[in-house]
Amino acid sequence: MRGTPMEVPDGTGRRLLPRSLGLLSLGLGAAAIGAPSQVGRLIGVDDSMIARTTVLPGIGARELLSAVGLLVGRHPSGWVWTRVAGDAMDLAALANAMRDRQGRRRQRLGATLAVVAGITAVDVLAGVLSTRAAGARRRAVRASATVTINRSADEVYRFWRDFENLPRFMYHLESVRSDGDGRSHWTVKGPAGRRVEWDAEVVEDHLSEMISWRSVRGARVPNAGRVRFARAAGGRGTEVRVELAYAPPGGAVGRAVAKLFGEEPEQQIRDDLRRFKQVMETGEVVRSDGSPAGTSTRQQVLQTPARPRAARLPR
Amino acid sequence: MKANCWQGRESLAVEEVPDPKIMNSRDAVVRVTSSAICGSDLHLFHGYIPSMKKGDVLGHEFMGEVVEIGPDVHNLRIGDRVVVPFPIACGNCAACQSGLYSVCENSNPNAGVAERLFGHAPGGIYGYSHMLGGYAGGQAEYARVPFADIGPIKVEDDLPDEKVLLLSDVFPTGYMGAEMCGIKGGEVIAVWGAGAVGLLAMRSAYLLGAERVIAIDRFPYRLRMAREQAGAEPLNYEEVDVIETLREMTGGRGPDACIDAVGMEGHHSSAVLHGYDRAKQSVRLETDRPHALREAIMSCRNGGTVSIIGAYGGFVDKFPIGSLMNRSLTVRTGQCHVQRYTRMLLDRIRRGEIDPSFVITHRLRLEDAPIGYEMFRQKQDDCTKVVLKL
């Protein structure tokens, strides 16, 4: 039943920049090692034996190392900062080279210095963004739970596949609206009436077996979910396993969001699945006097006495 | 409406509370006509069942007239006379469909709490703690009945309340206790506890073909009822050594099956042994006093069956696992799956094979429920079963 761990979608979607910088590193590194003389001429240090034989190939090797990290690594944020460190070394070396050179070589060095400074600015930006994304990943909350439902995988799958059904048993959801073509709009009502909304897309959809979805780029709270349906041993219905992951932003907003997704996400999913089972098997969420809104861990702690209530039913 | 409400340990009050309403589409509301006090209600009264809240309406043995039905109840009509089984069961889950109604997987909204104590959660029960659902009970003028299309059994008007009321709990519970003994014919069955459940287990054992039934209790009036009403051989554990006497009575073998119809608040003839468990229970080092169960296990013949229908809530110690294991005993137990038995037992009542109302000793008004609990607890006036009449 277990698959690869679910990736929390990168809310900012800025994988592109580190990857581009990786390609730049690859080009620079290859040039500096493969054609140090030409590079030396281009940037105006072709008069230095040490620059051609040692410094440029060294810089090339460093760039290749960064390129590998940026292009192959799962989380490029650390490697972006190696580029920033390299930029600082290069700027210092270029400034030093400019001091004892005149004429065209000095002009070329000046131009190189300007280009490297520009690249440095881009590298710093990429570093800051990547580090933020890594922080969000570290805060990412994952939870999973499983339940057996006395219905066929086909029935259970079909109910879930209509995301508009989810708020019937996932109490943190206010609504889900299907927009067609695999897209849907999700709304969560938080404390003090604050709403968090996002659009989600279906990532994988295997009939009666599995559905996975994730928020699309730009979601305030990037999140993803996956549900699998498997026949229970001995024909005892369908085992449903749900995994949810979300990456709350840092700071106060993050704390508020965490609250609305539940203090104990694992427990919350378990509650969701208990209600899902009730809906699938009995037709609705089962209520009692002590838990008039039905199963919820919070309600289990804050039980009202087991006696009829005068007030209207809560949701 | 008026309802008997739990106020705290050993404190009850009949209070005015709102009338119940339909909360789910398969609910009914019943105007209660008779409601009994169960021995297990005394565990609540004494505060041994966790997760009670001040104001909880008690009562899980009731019957009455349907006055309101939800839109998805198609088998009942307003005005139908019904007996309501104490376990709330959906009828749709795998447990219900295997006949295991008291462990219904959907009827306990507070299953998470019960899971912490029990590992997995049983179903909901009327008026029996929040851990078992947080449902208002039936010691009230009206009661909400969830899954009314599954639980309640219709009874015709010619059968008086008292003849059928006990189908809600004690009769099926006693019957299941006997059934779990695996009686094939000719067995000797010993029953600990000659209260309502124990007496009905004795009668059921005979119905199923047992040859001899032995009743173990300490109250002479209960032992007299066991002998006169249930045809059992009485044995007073305050007067004799039970294990020795049972050995003696069965040619050294021990009874073929032993039924524990006592549960968590048992007594022991030895003041020291009773005091040991009573003290541990009162400071919550163990939740239950398993005197009857220990004795039932030690007494049972090799390869015999121990059937536990007395209510237990948590943990015990000095449990004779060595006797159980080395002597090939079988333990069978469970809260009664009442819905499994109601039709068949109603037919037996109708055919005159048994009239379970012989256990009822007292009839009171709902307003006097607290008095009924006190009498029942003190075993005053030979009290065995109190029915509240509305």
UniProtKB/TrEMBL annotation, chain B:
Among Gene3D superfamilies, the record links this protein to: Medium-chain alcohol dehydrogenases, catalytic domain, NAD(P)-binding Rossmann-like Domain
Transmembrane residue ranges: none
Task: List the SUPFAM superfamilies hit by this protein, alphabetically.
Answer: GroES-like (SSF50129), NAD(P)-binding Rossmann-fold domains (SSF51735)
Q: Has the keyword Magnesium been applied to this entry?
A: no
* Pfam families, per database record: ADH_N (PF08240), ADH_zinc_N (PF00107)
The record's annotation in PROSITE patterns points to: ADH_ZINC (PS00059)
Keywords from the named record: Metal-binding, Oxidoreductase, Zinc
Keyword Metal-binding on this protein? yes
- Domain Alcohol dehydrogenase-like N-terminal, by residue range, is 26-152
The UniProt record lists the Alcohol dehydrogenase-like C-terminal domain at 196-264
Return the similarity comment. Answer: Belongs to the zinc-containing alcohol dehydrogenase family.
The name under which this protein is listed is Glutathione-dependent formaldehyde dehydrogenase
Species this protein is from = Plantactinospora alkalitolerans
